[in-house]
């Protein structure tokens, strides 16, 4: 063999080595093709599994982020409601103080300042969706009213709210604090009290 032929053998590429090593018999080629097809199917299956796993992870993360956001909003909402409920006690104090204010003091400047603060508190509550619950003259509703006193009276229907001890409030469509109320309880005289008294049941004179 010449030096030129030896040089070509030394510089033969790996692809050429691979081709040279192949068994070109039909049976061997078919087996090689089947092997390559099996490897391709396995690779495709692995890729599909990896893709499905990635999609599940992405969906789980999206659900986690949504739940976290909902929990954060719920926590903030609860904290806001607790703060507003405490603020209602301040509003109650203003209501009682202004209701008990003597008329002769109403012209004083500091009294007008109290009214201004009270109006600002009301505006703040309204901006947060807090509105008073109507109670007096309404039928008693345990979802919105809390009965403190039952008054025996014939001047109102049974179960009607006759007075308000502490004002109740809603926050949007929910009760923030129920109204503390007086409720009518009709007086029903006994039959014996209404029946005419006959001092001589036997009719003897």
SSE inventory with pairings:
Elements lengths: L2 H8 L3 H8 L4 H74 L9 H19 L2 E3 L12 E8 L8 E6 L2 E3 L2 E4 L1 E7 L5 H4 L11
Parallel strand pairs: 2-6
Antiparallel strand pairs: 1-4, 3-6, 4-5
Helix pairs in contact: 3-4
Task: Walk me through this protein's architecture.
- This protein has 205 residues and is α+β, with helices and mostly antiparallel strands.
- The chain has a domain of 62 residues: Head domain of nucleotide exchange factor GrpE (Nucleotide Exchange Factor Grpe, Chain A, domain 2), CATH 2.30.22.
- Helices cover 55% and strands 15% of the residues.
- The protein is built from 5 helices and 6 strands, in the order ααααββββββα.
- The strands form 2 sheets. It has a 3-stranded antiparallel β-sheet with strand order 1-4-5.
- Strand 4 and strand 5 form a beta hairpin.
**CATH 2nd-level architecture of the domain at 130-191:** Roll
Rg: 45 Å
Largest sheet: 3 strands, antiparallel
Structural class, from helix and strand content? alpha+beta
Task: Enter the CATH topology name of the domain at 130-191.
Answer: Nucleotide Exchange Factor Grpe, Chain A, domain 2
CATH 4th-level superfamily of the domain at 130-191: Head domain of nucleotide exchange factor GrpE
Q: What's the N-to-C terminus distance?
A: 166 Å
Overall form: elongated
- Would you identify the regions where 5 or more consecutive residues have pLDDT less than 50? 190-205
H and E order: HHHHEEEEEEH
Number of strands: 6
The strand line-up of the biggest sheet is: 1-4-5
Which CATH top level class of the domain at 130-191 fits?
Mainly Beta
Question: Strand percentage, roughly?
Answer: 15-25%
Q: What does the average pLDDT come to?
A: 79
Helix content: 55-70%
* Structure annotation, total helices: 5
């Amino acid at each position: 063999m010449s030096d030129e032929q030896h040089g070509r053998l030394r510089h033969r590429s790996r692809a050429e080595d691979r081709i040279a090593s192949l068994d070109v018999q039909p049976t061997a080629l078919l087996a090689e093709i089947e092997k390559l097809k099996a490897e391709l199917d396995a690779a495709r299956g692995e890729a599909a599994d990896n893709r499905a796993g990635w999609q599940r992870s992405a969906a789980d993360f999206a659900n986690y982020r949504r739940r976290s956001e909902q929990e954060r909003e719920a926590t903030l909402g609860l904290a806001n409601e607790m703060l507003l409920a405490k603020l209602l006690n301040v509003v109650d104090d203003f209501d009682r103080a202004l209701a008990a204010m003597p008329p002769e003091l109403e012209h004083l400047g500091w009294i007008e300042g109290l009214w201004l603060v009270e109006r600002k508190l009301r505006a703040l509550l309204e901006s947060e969706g807090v509105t008073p619950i109507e109670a007096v003259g309404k039928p008693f509703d345990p979802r919105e009213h809390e009965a403190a006193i039952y008054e025996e009276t014939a001047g109102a229907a049974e179960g009607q709210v006759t007075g308000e001890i502490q004002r109740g409030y809603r926050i949007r469509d929910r009760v923030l604090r129920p109204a503390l109320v007086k409720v009518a309880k009709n007086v029903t005289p006994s039959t014996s009290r209404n029946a005419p008294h006959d001092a001589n049941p036997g009719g003897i004179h």
